[in-house]
């Protein structure tokens, strides 16, 4: 399973994740189901959280494009998205693969302009010389 995640995401911004499933085995994988679980309220899926692939032949890839959005109050740091892949092999034995995608949520510096001039709140009163 390969994944493509942005290098960083600002709180409140949308982002995309690409998940590539590759059958590296010598037999088909069938009934492939993929579940996406953003483990906190900081990240919300904008696309389906469940995917189904009837069959994945040996050497075949399936690419899933997923869209997410972050909350404007998302905590800074690495936010996890849990990926669970369930499938059956040729003899119908069930298998599960679990992976975590870490989404780096970073802060954004914002320039603050301060007004200038006399009589600003909190400024000492202007002195007049005579």
Automatic annotation (TrEMBL):
InterPro entries: Ig-like_fold (IPR013783). It comes from the Archaea. This is CARDB domain-containing protein.
């Amino acid at each position: 399973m390969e994944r493509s995640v942005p290098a960083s995401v600002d709180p409140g911004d949308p982002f995309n994740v690409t998940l590539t499933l590759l059958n590296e085995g010598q037999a088909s994988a069938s009934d492939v189901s993929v579940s996406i679980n953003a483990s906190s309220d900081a990240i919300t899926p904008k696309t389906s959280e469940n995917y189904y692939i009837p069959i994945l032949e040996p050497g075949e890839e399936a690419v899933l494009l997923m869209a997410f959005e972050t909350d404007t109050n998302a905590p800074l740091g690495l936010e996890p998205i849990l990926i669970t892949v369930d499938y059956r092999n040729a003899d119908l034995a069930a298998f599960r693969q679990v992976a975590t995608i870490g989404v780096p949520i970073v802060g954004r510096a914002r320039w603050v302009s301060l007004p200038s001039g006399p009589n600003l709140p909190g400024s000492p009163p202007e002195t007049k010389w005579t």
